[in-house]
Design goal:
With 267 residues, the protein is of the alpha/beta class. The protein is built from eleven helices and eleven strands. The strands form two sheets. Strands 7-6-5-8-9-11-10 form a seven-stranded mixed beta sheet, sandwiched between helices. A four-stranded mixed beta sheet has the order 1-2-3-4, sandwiched between helices. β10 (247-249) and β11 (256-262) form a beta hairpin. Residues 193-200 have low confidence and may be disordered.
Amino acid sequence: MTADLQGVVTTAARPNPELLHRAGEIARRLGLPLVSRDRRTLDEILAEYAASFSAVATREGTFLYADGRQYRYHPGMAVVRLRQVIRGHPDPLLEVGEVRPGDRVVDATLGLGADAIVLSHAVGPEGRVVGVEGRPVLAFFVEEGLSTYAYPALPELEAAMRRVEVVWGDHVDYLRRLPDRSVDLVYFDPMFRKTISASRGIDALRVFGDPSALRFEAVKEAVRVARRRVVLKDRRDGGEIDRLGFQPVPKGSGRIQFGVIDVGGGK
C-alpha cells in the first residue's frame, strides 16, 4: 500500500459537533477529503471513494483504518527499552550513538518513534530530539500519539514522548537547512529492504511508511550537520551499511546491525 496512499478522513459512527470539527482539522492538515460517516461502514466509505485508508476521529483519539484493520498508536518497544535503561542496563543505540544528556539529535527516519523516545529520555530536558517523517499521514499519526498517549505506570516514558519534536517532510531537505556541525547525532533507521516478519509491532509502518532506500545525499548532509556521529541501523544481511559507506560496529541484537560515521569529537 505504501506505493499509492489515497486516503479520506471521517469520524466515529455518531459524531458530536466537537468531533466533526476535529475531523475537519485533520482533513485540512493532511489535505484529504472529509467524508460524512452517515452510518456507513469504513469499508463502504473506502470503496466509494476508491481510498486505501481512512483517518478516523473518535472521542478516544484518531486511528488509521486500512485492509480491514484499525491502527492505534503505541510506543512499541520503547516501553521495554526505557524500563531497561532506567534499571541501568545498556541500550545498543544509545551506546553506538554515544548519546549524552543535553545532546541535540535528529532522528531522520522517525517511523513510529520508538527510537526517538529512547533518545529523548537519554538527552533529557536540556537536550533536543527532532524526528523527521516524510509520509504526512504517518507523521500526523505519530505526532498525535507522542503528544497524547498515556502510560501512568512509566512517567519517564510520557515525559520523553512529549519532548520529541515531529517535523513533516523530506529528511534531505530538512538536513540541508541545518547549519554545519549543529547537532550531535544524526540517526537513520530506514525501512528494512528485507522485512523481519516476526515484528508485528511495526505493522502500521509497513502499511503507511516509506519503503524507499536511504539516499547518498542524506548521508552527505548528515555528515556535514553532525558534530559527533552519524548512525545507521539495518539488518545484518541488509547491505545498506556497506552500500552507504558506514563502518559496521558489533553492538546490536540478533539480526540488527549498526553502522557509524565518526565526524568529530563533539562537545
